[in-house]
Amino acid sequence: MELDNNNHSVFSMYYHLVLVIKYRRKVIDDNISNRLKEIFAYIAPNYNIALQEWNPDKDHVRILFKAQPNSELSKFINAYKSASSRLIKKEYSIIRKSLWKEYFWARSFCLLTTGGAPMEVVGRYIESQGEKI
């Protein structure tokens, strides 16, 4: 296993995040998925987070990312959900027909540590989930 380090610690912190579209609306297509991924990759470094895997479905995304001990995960997730919701609704007006209120993402999220499973196994699992869009 390869470990990361900073000035004061050695670590391996991988997380599996699932974000669901409000009302489970099936609004994610390739263009929207690519834009959501771009926004994630843009915001993540501000929180010492690095994207590892991205797998969209029509009504949710599964993300594998790497963090550091000083990463503020809940702040990052809230910042990402807020920014991506605002930008996606602004850039893809068709979304407003399916999601008539201000929210793009469901209020809750699922965040799992990857435990002792090898990253290749977790990555393959995330890749294999759901229907491809």
UniProtKB/TrEMBL annotation:
It comes from the Bacteria. GO terms for molecular function: DNA binding; transposase activity. One of its GO terms (biological process) is DNA transposition. Pfam families: Y1_Tnp (PF01797). Residues 10-129 form the Transposase IS200-like domain. Gene3D superfamilies: Transposase IS200-like. InterPro entries: Transposase_17, Transposase_17_sf. This is IS200/IS605 family transposase. It comes from Paenibacillus piri. The gene is tnpA.
